[in-house]
Amino acid sequence: MPSAKVSLAFSARTRTSGFLFLTAALTLACGMFTLCCTASADAAEKSNDPNIIYILADDMGYGDIRALNPECKIATPNLDQLAHGGMIFTDAHSSSSVCTPTRYGILTGRYNWRSRLKSGVLWGLSRRLIEPDRLTVPEMLKQHGYYTACVGKWHLGMDWTLKQGGIATEQSFNKKTNPGWEVDYSKPIQNGPNSVGFDYFFGISASLDMPPYVYIENNKSQGIPTVTKAFFREGPAHKDFEAIDVLPRITEKTVEIIDEHAAAAKKGKPFFIYFPLNAPHTPILPTPKWQGKSGINAYCDFVMQVDDTVGQVMRALKAQGIDKNTLVIFTADNGCSPAANFKEMTDKDHSPSYQFRGHKADIYEGGHRVPFIANWPAHIKAGTHSDQLTCLTDLMATAADIVGAKLPESAGVDSVSILPAMEGTATKPLREAAVHHSIRGAFSIRKDHWKLELCPGSGGWSFPKPGKDDLSGLPAIQLYDLNADVGEQKNVQAEHPEVVKELTALLQSYADKGRSTPGKPQENNGAVDIFKAGTSAQKMKKPAKKRAKAKS
């Protein structure tokens, strides 16, 4: 009998253990199934994050695209197709009316005048501008699984090593007796695009009229400069480097990256390509295929070549089957430059600035109101327009919104997501206001239909020009009602002192708080004086002597 009890007990324990084991096994299996399903769902969700290509033209006017300007005399079929297939933002602005400051704002979501650069632009050998601890768009997207690449004109500084040791500065080039030959071009470049979040970089250090004339891949100069060349400015160049080849070369490289990363993008590893063009900036050198095509002048020919570059990118996306879930943004860093020869274009009834006053470098609309087209077939309805006030600093918040990222307090302090506008869900203004900046550091703030400019004259290169034209008899500030006067012809500051007071206080608060968006106050890099440039211009009672200027 005892043996029977033992046998029965053992049998019971065995059945219980078996049941427990089966239960545990099923629980584990279910857990693994759930985990796998969750992982699959996450992967599926991740694969829905779009590829992002940000194409930044250099010195191209709002009026240079037919889809934006019905009176445009330049044929732009690819940009027109991009616009008709997506959304045109009619009130988009660069944060500055010149090159470097705008690029800083695009990649950091922070107004340029908060950085150490309070006016002007950098040079080809200038030191890094983006602060080491500053979160950038590519860094943020990398944290969310993106492959990141920059192809084209950098112009945000990088640290070149000198032959005698140390790092090059602006003065390493900006002297006729010292044009950059003291740099050791065989040494790795420090603090370039790879240091701010880009997995890959190919391009040039600054504008194509600024030495050194050499291609850079990641942190290495592609060859050692051994000859002197001048594409407006004279300086060290690689013997095979020719300015006319740059736009085709960077276009080819961008298409290669699309082709190489399309398969990964389909599997949930999207890419971000920041594609800052060298064109149609000086030197204005369209390739033989495009020379004379516009029937207007070389600048307009170059714009047509830019249009073809956009077409090549779009065809690559379609060929890879990833065009539907790729957000392509086309815009420009500022308005058209007077180097484009406005007289030649006016004679052919073409206006790069469209109906806006001024051009590159100015505080007027022509300096910073830029073309902005967003094409994303999976999310943006074709043939749509948005009149939302938009700034190029908005890329940071928009990209974060797309991937569901929460930005730290110190990031994107002047960035607002325009995703609701893209998706057609915005029911009110997304931005409270936007701040504009001229090459001389003159400030302007825009809110609703009012635009306040804290300077007399253009603040840049057009008439009335500081340092050239007598500004002493002009009011120290300008106020325009853009609803009634988009051409900024009638200064109404005397009739609306309450608006002047309100907008001045708002701009000052943005400067004081180190941000223009809700959040914890942040520090600026150096003091910000919103009146300084305007006051300086007002004191110029006689035209100053002609001085050299930087063509950014």
Automatic annotation (TrEMBL):
InterPro entries: Alkaline_phosphatase_core_sf (IPR017850), Sulfatase (IPR050738), Sulfatase_CS (IPR024607), Sulfatase_N (IPR000917). Its EC number is 3.1.6.1. The keyword Calcium applies. The keyword Isomerase does not apply. Pfam families: Sulfatase. It is an enzyme of class 3 (hydrolase). This is Arylsulfatase. It comes from Gimesia alba. The lineage of its organism: Bacteria, Pseudomonadati, Planctomycetota, Planctomycetia, Planctomycetales.
